[in-house]
Amino acid sequence: MAPRARSGIVLSPTAAGRLAALAEAAGRPQMLRVAVDGGGCSGFQYRFELVDAAEADDLRIESGGQAALVDPVSIPFLKGSEIAFVDELAGAQFVVRNPNAASSCGCGVSFSI
Question: In the chain, N or C: fewer CB atoms in 10 Å?
Answer without folding.
Answer: N
